[in-house]
Amino acid sequence: MSDFMIETKCVQSGYRPNNGEPRQIPIYQSTTFKYDTSEDMGKLFDLEASGYFYSRLQNPTCDLVAAKICDMEGGSAAMLTSSGMAANFFAAFNICEAGGHIVSSSTIYGGTYNLFAVTFKKMGIDVTFVDPACSEEELDAAFRPNTKLVFGETIANPALKVLDIEKFADAAHRHGVPLIIDNTFPTPVNCRPFEWGADIVTHSTTKYMDGHGAAVGGAIVDSGKFDWMAHAEKFPGLCTPDDSYHGITYAEKFGQGGAFIYKATAQLMRDLGCTPSPNSAFLLNLGLESLHVRIRRHCENALAVATFLANSDKISWVNYAGLPTDPQYALAKKYMPEGTCGVVSFGVKGGRKAAETFMKNLRLIAIETHVADARSCCLHPANSTHRQMNEEELIAAGVPSDLVRLSCGLENSADLIADLESALRCI
Ligand SMILES: *Cc1c(COP(=O)(O)O)cnc(C)c1O
Q: How far does residue 338's CA lie from ligand 1's centre (Å)?
């Protein structure tokens, strides 16, 4: 399916039924798989033959959906995980162990920030955070001899900063390491980071890909473009024999296009088991079938809402990279010419109190910690996710106390604007 346009891939990639087979992907609701001889099964355990033996490692339904996402991103191999956090953890930990170091954009999802700053630290992995707007020199200065990867988000959640992917990819490659991009917010419909030099892409499929608030999940896609063997001393896990599989070397046995995902499946899934259920993968696939139609409507609604907010005298600032007046507009147009995402953030005049009153008076737009689903929702971080922080800490974290994050759903934008207008009238 790799010659087709992204819309066609959303609908048809991954699963091509043969004569008389089901049109929709089958749900293989089975923990285990049957073999005629022990030799047949032994070959699977030796990674000599490919096939299924236990759904903690791999399941056919999950693999069909992973193959679709792989095709959408233009990758060489992909896997699903049980959550977006599991995808980011696996993608990094697959090549960075105790004693390693990561360079990461500072504006990333809060969960990933915690994983890097707190949990990885306990595991002996150091992370240096850099401002995504930093110069090439500042970026170069963040690298160390033990740096194993660079990490960033195409559009950061919740800061909504757009990453200059080429700048980060060039820096990573100058230092002989891959760039991992969390592409959750734009989805491959609006941005395909491999086309700009990224090596590995991750997703929280919980967001737009599922799109209906139905199933938590994640995905990892490898571009197959990073030459592990050319930097073998940095990546012993991929380039030297694995004792837990009779001494196979992933980069030799599965090549540049297969090694990364093979190792993450055979080693990390085996040992850590963050696998999605086949039922969740089926739901995710239903979401993917309409992703290209939905994401455009999310973007249209967000642009209409952002334009309304920018013209309202009750609003002090609006952050939406799709607005022509936004300082990030040029960067967004370069990487996402067809649209960014459906999430807008803004400041309510009158600060924390006014934001509280505004939120209380919304009727259609619900208060949720979620984003990127069919129903519009919003969040006041100073009163919820970030409520342990004082005013100064909130400003340092890029979430001032007047900030409201609004995820525009698929409703009619006139109804959303009317809801915002009447709630703003109450402050
Ligand atoms: C939500 C989110 C995650 C975490 O995904 P879960 O599916 O909630 O585990 C990671 N990255 C980004 C950008 C997200 O928005």
A: 23
